[in-house]
Fold this sequence. Notes:
By secondary structure, this protein is α/β, with parallel strands linked by helices. The chain folds into 3 domains: 14-181, Thiamin diphosphate (ThDP)-binding fold, Pyr/PP domains (Rossmann fold), CATH 3.40.50.970; 198-359, Rossmann fold (3-Layer(aba) Sandwich), CATH 3.40.50; 364-557, 3-Layer(aba) Sandwich (Rossmann fold), CATH 3.40.50. Helices cover 34% and strands 15% of the residues. It is built from 20 helices and 20 strands. Strand 4 (81-84), helix 4 (88-103) and strand 5 form a beta-alpha-beta unit. Helix 1 (16-26) packs across helix 2 (41-49) and helix 12 packs parallel to helix 19 (519-532).
Amino acid sequence: MELKRASAARQGARPGGRVLADALVAQGIDHVFAVPGESYLDVLDGLYAVHDHLKLVTCRFEAGAVNAAEAYGKLTGRPAAAMVTRGPGACHGAIGVHIAQQDSTPMLLFVGQIPFAETDRESFQEVDYRRMFGPLAKWVTQIDDADRIPEIVAHAVDVATTGRPGPVVIALSEEMQKDLVDVPDLGPALVSRPQPDPDAIAAIGKLLAGASKPLAILGGGGWTATGREAIHRFLTAHDIPTTVAFRRQGLYDGTLSNFVGDLGVGPDPALVARAKEADLILAIGTRLGEAVSQGYTLFDQAGGTAIVHVHQEASEIGRVFRPRLGITADLNAFATAAAALPVKRVPWGEWTAELRAIRQAGRVPTDTAYPLNVGAAMRELETLLPPDAICTCDAGNFAGWPQRFIDFGPGQRFLGPTNGAMGYSVPAAVGAKIAFPDRMVVSFVGDGGFLMTGQEIATAFHHGVAPIVIVFNNSMYGTIRMYQERSYPGRVSGTALTNPDFAKWIEAFGGHGETVKETAEFGPAFRRAVESGRPAVIELVMDPEQITSRATVTQLRAGTGVVKPAAKPPAAKPARPATARPRAKR
């Protein structure tokens, strides 16, 4: 969408609602995801005036609106805006702010506020948003003076997009939106990114020269296509076995021979065991948080394993694990500098091959007597996804299926909430499809999460986009059931679910529905969903006994979790050599 650029000249007196709309356009914000409310009527009127430059996406629930905006920011690297009304609307939208904070995603959330004159009277729907959102956002503020709208919006964009990206929350007092002010619009600022110290890059070369079992862990937010391509060049040139942090599959080409899997919730136990043998960890972008570090047990806090920790935020370096070398830098700038590091010594080819073999062995679907082998279905889906597909993922045990069995290519993206928020995937898929209407968008979601925010599929119909939603239906809150079976075997409490016919559910909207009960049905069902050109739901009727991709309920009750691979695995797509040049993004 062509954006109107800010002018230094004043435009004459405008109401605050219009000034805010113009401020968003001036900053290059081109999408607003919103549930309308009476607390920001004047802003809605302002958005009407700029509808040629900024798309207003009307959503059905505030959590859906904020999640859609978060996904938009993940994909584009630029913040979208979300708008919700005061009180209940802000509370509903808070989960999206928490997602953006823990996922390091740039985002602006505007919250309608009570009239400033009624502050501290517990007025209708009054909330102190600085206190409410303080622990969840990079910055929380309130605009009470319309003269300051351009200043605050411009600063909010800078805060959201620089350093470690994250969400900014801005409350809008009601009467301020009506005030007439004569102020200039402010355009975006060119802010230089922190560059890595050349001596630190040279130090990485020395650490690699002394290593025999290096391991890279990629994570974090703020990556660009250029940065991802550069980090590919660095890691492939040195043939360093590479993992991705929790739900960061979109950062690395999983088809390369040096991609060895993910470190997060439900990783391959064999990979975790070998990761503990590494003598050099390159933690690039990841915070090395609880999920990645397996409950802070993967490494020695005192620095027994040499760790190079690269992060945009200096306070994250050494927060838990003491690094041998800490580098504060923009991740893309670091990647470019690291890619220029000369290759002097690569004696760990066998180590890389061993870790890749673990990944490939883990992708062999397990034998099952149940008609639907979900692992086999995911392997087939891998062949059906176009090179530029975007996949969104919810929280839950079901997520282990696509994460374990699909190697995502260099042009594909995978979005998931690292804070474990259910209800993310469907609105994220809608936001992704609105951002990139010509790319295939596939949502992975469990039956529990789907009925939390699945109604956002109505937003897809309203705005003419068609994501494909794959519902993994085992009629339970699977993750909690898993923990129950581990701690209280056989004592099922509160985790069983009753579901509708999901195919008929989407058909009621005018969409395309499929129910898959056998492995052979999946491929044809997916193709029909694509060919329909409509929003689609594919329900996978799963075996409730298969509680995770690696264990059954019976195994959990017995205290075991080992599942043997199938005797005849499907033909594997050959890995591209780590030294190969990554394919161009389509």
